[in-house]
Design brief:
Radius of gyration: 13 Å
Number of helices: 2
Strand order of the largest sheet: 1-2
Largest sheet: 2 strands, parallel
Structural class: alpha+beta
Number of strands: 2
Length: 79
């Protein structure tokens, strides 16, 4: 049998509103009890950057010393 410890959802954002919608829906799922596991909920791409700031668990970030970002939209919070 398989065991799941974390849920990660990634959506492509066409606008910053898409990124905010991902966060709102993730919060709603947790508050309703639908999701009981740690949840990573982010929107990909430049328009999804705000979702990485608002994410509450294992936020994907990069470091400014690395030669490239792991994924589009990842920000360095180590300036």
């Amino acid at each position: 049998s398989e065991h799941v410890d974390i849920i990660k959802t990634v959506f492509m954002a066409k606008s910053s509103e898409d990124a905010l919608l991902v966060r709102r829906e993730a919060d709603r799922a947790v508050q309703s009890g639908l999701v009981r596991l740690p949840l990573i909920a982010i929107a990909a791409g430049d328009a999804g950057k705000i979702s990485r700031v608002l994410n509450r668990f294992m936020t994907p970030v990069t470091h400014s010393a690395l030669p490239m970002k792991a994924a589009p939209g990842n920000e360095s919070f180590m300036h």
